[in-house]
Write a structure and sequence with these properties.
2 domains, Rossmann fold, formyl-coa transferase, domain 3, 6-stranded parallel sheet
């Protein structure tokens, strides 16, 4: 059998222009970059992407930036100037993918809508992420991930019953939009290769990305008029699956498989429940979920987390503790699967960053270059599109680039 010579990276040779900022667009760019795409990030001179200054700062730069912009190149370019837009068009002309998460209509106002860009680059794949999408009555409203989570139905389900809805602690709406956008880009690139070389637009709305993962929310309302409500740490309609108090913390137990439930009840000394025919399937357990949860917590509350984990793992019952950042950083399984990588920043610091997901066995992703400082690659990128040193100096003097 003739061996297949694979490229070193799955997306080697794919060029991406990233115009997005903050989370949704740049996370899509990060994902493509991790798997070998050349990602050129366009930032505003002077300020750059606001994410550079979000949360905890080390030597003037957010450590979050080190994750979000690894494997990318940065060009500081004023897109509000005609000259800057001309340079952007030259970059896009040679690109496979354009990522943008401006408010709908922004690029059209600059004469850079998809119709204009596809004239100079018919194969261009354009990922557009916005609050409400490129069409519809809400398209012009400002939208962030938190609003998408609310409109998508997620926020109504988070938190304890009867209390203020809470966020999950991260910008999950933005990240879900980015992942849907990344999938769209890969499908569009495949279609372009297989069916004639034409590109297309991928239109991702934040609330739609959230709504897409809301499971049975709408079918249940459609069929039964049921409006699903917040349920704290429980999983409504699935039993038992909840968080249970221990002497020194909480564990999550998912004992909702029929045979798993029997093993769980045997382990906690409640064979009376495990052998009860009425609890032999999920429907029966859901009817008596309060009784089952009370029995489990009566057992866990008298034990330490470590002891509960040991006992239930031995019984092959899915169980886990609630990890903090310290737990993750010290966990041997994370390290064994290369999910904690050490990255040296361009300021010379070493910082641990998340590993690369998913894991491709033939063409794995890699951490090739640290996140750039603002405009680190401006001159190099401009030379690559044919500008001379004199032209670059003149653009810098006019503050078109930096």
């Amino acid at each position: 059998m003739t061996p297949i010579n694979l490229p070193t990276s799955a997306l080697q040779g794919v060029r991406v222009i990233e115009m997005g900022q903050l989370i949704a667009g740049p996370f899509a760019g990060k994902t493509l970059a991790d798997f070998g795409a050349e990602v050129i990030k366009i930032e505003a001179p002077g300020s750059g992407d606001p994410l550079r200054n979000w949360r905890l700062i080390q030597d003037g730069t957010s450590v979050w930036w080190q994750v979000q912009s690894r494997n990318k190149r940065s060009i500081a370019l004023d897109l509000r100037s005609a000259e800057g837009q001309d340079i952007a068009r030259q970059l896009i002309k040679e690109a496979d993918v354009l990522i943008e998460n401006f408010r709908p209509g922004t690029l059209e106002g600059w004469g850079m809508g998809y119709e204009q860009l596809s004239e100079i680059n018919p194969g261009l794949v354009m990922l557009r992420i916005s609050g409400y999408g490129q069409t519809g009555p809400y398209r012009d409203l400002p939208g962030f991930g938190a609003i998408g989570e609310a409109m998508g139905g997620l926020r109504h389900l988070t938190g304890e019953p009867g209390r203020v809805p809470v966020r999950c602690g991260i910008s999950i709406g933005d990240t879900l939009a980015a992942l849907h956008g990344t999938i769209g880009v890969l499908m569009a690139l495949y279609h372009r290769q297989a069916h004639g070389g034409r590109g297309q637009v991928i239109d991702v709305a934040l609330h739609e990305a959230v709504f897409n993962v809301m499971e049975s929310l709408i079918p249940e309302y459609s069929a039964f008029g049921a409006v699903r409500e917040a349920a704290g740490s429980a999983l409504p309609g699935i039993a038992p699956s909840n968080a249970y108090r221990c002497e020194d913390g909480y564990v999550l137990v998912a004992g909702n498989g029929d045979s798993i439930f029997k093993r769980l009840m045997s382990t906690i000394g409640r064979d009376d429940l495990g052998n009860d025919p009425a609890l032999g399937d999920n429907a029966g357990r859901v009817k008596r979920v309060a009784e089952i949860d009370a029995a489990i917590e009566a057992w866990t509350s008298q034990r330490r987390v470590a002891d509960v984990l040991e006992a239930l793992n031995a019984a092959r019952v899915p169980v886990g503790k609630v990890y903090t950042a310290r737990d993750i950083a010290e966990d041997p399984h994370y390290r064994a699967r290369d999910m904690l990588l050490t990255q040296r920043t361009r300021d010379g610091h070493e910082v641990q960053v998340p590993g690369i997901v998913p894991k491709l066995m033939g063409t794995p992703g890699s951490l090739r270059t640290p996140a750039p400082k603002l405009g680190d690659d401006t001159d190099a990128v401009l030379r690559e599109i044919g500008l001379t040193e004199e032209q670059i100096a003149a653009l810098r003097a006019r503050k078109v680039v930096a």
